[in-house]
From TrEMBL:
Key words, A-Z: Heme, Iron, Metal-binding
Source species of the chain: Amaricoccus macauensis
Domain Cytochrome c residue range list: 41-149, 192-300
Annotated protein name in UniProt: Mono/diheme cytochrome c family protein
Keyword Transport in annotation: no
Lineage: Bacteria, Pseudomonadati, Pseudomonadota, Alphaproteobacteria, Rhodobacterales
């Protein structure tokens, strides 16, 4: 019967589509050779990676100051159009945190967005930037994180997303399309200092995650790199930080002073989600801050979006 035949074909097509989805969304971790070449970490070097990486901004309690920023028990909620993301406990507690992970598990999470069970992690964890990090820096960061206090509690908040975003496997398709460890922009004749700043800003510093507009799928639009973006917290816009925006008038010294103190050249204090970022940047050595400033002065200028939102 024709109907049965059609149904039969539809079932076959469904299986093929399902198998295709399954294959396309398969987690692809770091290769065994890469992991074998992972150097032992140096905790002292890892401290500055921790601060430029901004881990405390999401994994420490909201409003945490001073030493409380080293308590990575989770508990915040990041509200987005896809639903609420809850950064988990990543303290060295073996039961409630990630204390029983291996260095390889950690490298796969930072560079490939894959958890130890092979599950895809959501890119609200900014591994789309961290994927540009050097393996040695990831090893140093891991060594440093072992020195932080274990927090023996599960994070209070839980991730809660709308369908279809609640299907973790689907993140595999997002990664196929958007996970890319090449530089976000090309800078002609970049000095070693600018290249260092590019690495810090596009990799661990993940500046583009807030300062660059996103496409329909929530991936940053590198053609408008650092051009400014709507503020997910609701009010106003996150500023354009290319030479085409207001910071085009700042000197390198103004920029470094802003990172160290939170004051811009008009002596206005930094606000919003940049407060945590600035407190983290203030922990970095001066030459790293100078490199980030030199990079921002060298990125392709972008026009700011009109003020209306
Ligand atoms: C913008 C917020 C944000 C920042 C910054 C951030 N994370 Fe996360 N992180 C998250 C979220 C959200 C998740 C949960 C992702 C998920 O559920 O798939 C997560 C998950 C993780 C996981 C997986 C934990 C698990 O139990 O599966 C690790 C490891 C991790 N982050 C480490 C870090 C480190 C190290 C840094 C700093 C270099 C960092 N994160 C910075 C938001 C963030
Ligand atoms: C979590 C989101 C977030 C991240 C990550 C982030 N910023 Fe910002 N940034 C902001 C917001 C929001 C503002 C506006 C602050 C205000 O209103 O005072 C801002 C402001 C700034 C300014 C001042 C611009 C002006 O016109 O006054 C500079 C410079 C800046 N950011 C540089 C950086 C650099 C460099 C990085 C990466 C190391 C970075 N930001 C990462 C959210 C972020």
């Amino acid at each position: 019967m024709l109907v049965l035949r059609i149904l039969g074909w539809l079932a076959v097509l469904g299986l093929v589509a399902g198998a295709g989805f399954w294959v396309l969304t398969m987690p692809r971790g770091l290769s065994a050779e890469t992991l074998a070449a992972m150097p032992p970490g140096d905790a002292a070097r890892g401290e500055s990676i921790f601060w430029v990486g901004g881990c405390a901004s999401c994994h420490a309690a909201a409003g945490a100051k001073e030493n409380d920023r080293l308590k990575l028990g989770g508990g915040r909620v990041l509200a987005t159009e896809f639903g609420n993301f809850a950064p988990p406990n990543i303290s060295p507690d073996p039961e409630h945190g990630i204390g029983n992970w291996t260095a390889a598990d950690f490298a796969n999470s930072m560079l490939k967005g894959i958890g130890p069970g092979g599950e895809h992690l959501y890119p609200a964890f900014p591994y789309a930037s961290y994927t540009r990090m050097e393996l040695g820096d990831v090893a140093d960061l891991w060594a440093y994180m072992q020195t932080l206090p274990p927090i023996p509690e599960t994070a209070a908040a839980q991730t809660d997303l709308r369908f279809p975003f609640n299907i973790r496997r689907g993140v595999g398709l997002w990664k196929l399309a958007f996970l890319d460890d090449s530089p976000a922009v090309t800078i002609a004749d970049a000095s070693p200092e600018v290249l260092r700043g590019q690495y810090l800003s596009e990799g661990p510093g993940h500046c583009g995650e807030c300062h660059t507009p996103r496409n329909f799928a929530g991936a940053v639009d590198t053609s408008r790199w650092l051009a400014g973006a709507p503020n997910p917290e609701g009010k106003g816009r996150i500023p354009n930080i290319t030479p085409g925006g207001p910071v085009g008038d700042w000197s390198l010294a103004d920029m470094v002073y802003f990172y160290q103190t939170g004051f811009d050249p008009d002596f206005d204090a930094v606000g919003g989600s940049m407060v945590d970022v600035q407190e983290n940047l203030a922990m970095l050595p001066d030459d790293d801050l100078h490199a980030i400033a030199a990079y921002l002065a060298a990125v392709p200028p972008q026009a700011s979006a009109p003020a209306a939102r």
